[in-house]
Amino acid sequence: MSALTPDLLRELVAEARLAPSVHNIQPTRWRLLGDGRLALVDDVSVRAPVADPAGHDVLVSHGAALEGMSLALNRRGFAITGMTTIEQQLSAQFAVLCNFAIRQGVAPDPLAGHVASRMSWRGKYAASPDDGTSVVQLAIARDDLICISHRPTIADIAGWAGQAEFSFIRGDDYRAELLAWMRLSPGHPHYLLDGLNRDALAMNSVEATAAGFVLGGLFKPLDRLGLAALLLADSAKTASASAIVLFCRPVGEDPLTTGRHFYRSWLEIDRAGFAACPISALADHPDFNDRLRKLGKVDADLRLVNVFRVGRPSKPLKPRHFRLPVDQLII
Ligand SMILES: Cc1cc2nc3c(=O)[nH]c(=O)nc-3n(C[C@H](O)[C@H](O)[C@H](O)COP(=O)(O)O)c2cc1C
After folding, report:
1. Residue 223's CATH number
2. Model confidence at 137: pLDDT above 90
3. Distance from C-alpha of 55 to C-alpha of 61, rounded to nearest angstrom
4. Domain span including residue 206
5. Measuring from atom 17 of ligand 1, which residue has the nearest CA?
6. Quick one: 113 exposed, middle or buried, by C-beta within 10 A (0-12, 13-18, 19+)?
7. Residue 74 pLDDT > 50, yes or no?
8. Whose CA is nearest to atom 30 of ligand 1?
9. Which GO molecular function annotation, any one, does this entry have (predicted)?
């Protein structure tokens, strides 16, 4: 496969890295193999073990990166072929998760043009009565999405999201890990590179400083006073969404495949003119997962993998991506 030159690989990786990853940890690396195949490599030093103890979200993130690579190839008339998913340890830090060849000649993918504009929108959504119906249409087009657009039910789910998130935030290890991935001041050396910075979190400097204190040393006293939950509450944003979308995939599916569909679903949302943000806590918390499964009548053979809040952003989106440099992602 001589088509894949080092220069082309750099271009492809620059686009593939725009895929979402849990906490923006970006665990995916790429390696060009001697036979011209491309390997997706897991950097095992990049993890969020408290938020993601089973490592499922890391694999979903790798799957999203794989889909990102597929879309970058598609824009250049190439497609992935001959996928092999045998795990192979390269070193203490790196393990190949899959490798594939590249073939020429493929129909344009309508989602490829949305890679640059998709982003996590963590602000409020604009009130727009018909939008719920449009998100329903979008969900009907994909059989892995279930849309809830009934306003009182969205308000209930916003309350559940607050409870689910706070139940995790109460864990000392969870807060420590979250803070370690937060870049709350532009002076942080990784501010533009990875993790969650205050621009991505839609926080101003005062809010970001306050969040640092509330999640840090002040958490316990504030929690004793019953104030921590109030100060960290995100429910109003969820309640302003036009719809809550349940992302459900077959039980036992390869998480890389799940991740590819997770990214494609999010790109479909962008294509329909909406913005979204996952609320993993709702899927990760067994009680709320169960409640949502019942509410959405999710079939027993499907796993509720994640939950999106979806709507039109309250102000025009300025797409931005905080990512590691391409050179660091090719090994
Ligand atoms: C598996 C997975 C779970 C995620 N869960 C959450 C979440 O619970 N809350 C949130 O705000 N963002 C969540 N995200 C979004 C990431 O934080 C986001 O994709 C990353 O910071 C990169 O930013 P971008 O989406 O704006 O490009 C999740 C992403 C993935 C892939």
Report:
1. 3.40.109
2. no
3. 10
4. 131-311
5. 23
6. middle
7. yes
8. 22
9. oxidoreductase activity
Atom of ligand 1 nearest to the CA of 196: 21
pLDDT average, residue stretch 270-282: 96
Residues 111 and 137 in one domain: no
Distance between CA atoms of residues 328 and 325, nearest Å: 6
The CA R_g of the chain, rounded to the nearest whole Å, is 20
> Total structural domains in the chain?
2
Rounded percentage of the chain residues whose pLDDT exceeds 90: 91
- Rounded mean pLDDT of 65-75? 98
Per cent of the chain over pLDDT 70 is 99
- Would the CB of 23 count as within 6 Å of ligand 1? yes
Q: Is 23 inside any structural domain?
A: yes
The reply to whether 40 falls in a domain is yes
What's the 32 CA to ligand 1 centre distance in angstroms? Answer: 27
**147 and 290 share one domain:** yes
Establish if 41 belongs to a structural domain.
yes
- 92 and 24 within one domain: yes
Q: Are residues 290 and 179 in the same domain?
A: yes
101 with 192, same domain?
no
Place of tokens 């000649």: 105
Closest residue by CA, ligand 1 atom 21? 24
Closest residue (by CA) to atom 19 of ligand 1? 20
Q: Which atom of ligand 1 is nearest to the CA of 280?
A: 8
If asked whether residues 83 and 174 sit together in one domain, one would say no
What pLDDT, on the 0 to 100 scale, is given for residue 1? 46
**Residues 79-113: pLDDT tens digits?**
999 999 989 999 999 999 999 999 998 999 999 99
Atom in ligand 1 nearest the alpha carbon of residue 121: 26
Same domain, 138 and 271: yes
Q: Which helix (H) or strand (E) holds 277?
A: strand 275-278
In terms of Cβ atoms closer than 10 Å to its own Cβ (0-12, 13-18, 19+), residue 189 is exposed
- Asked if residue 267 has its Cβ within 6 Å of ligand 1, the reply is no
Average model confidence (pLDDT) across the chain: 95
pLDDT at residue 288 tops 90: yes
- pLDDT tens profile 19-33: 999 999 999 999 999
Q: Which residue has the tokens 């999106």?
A: 308
Same domain, 106 and 199: no
Q: List beta partners, residue 100.
A: 38
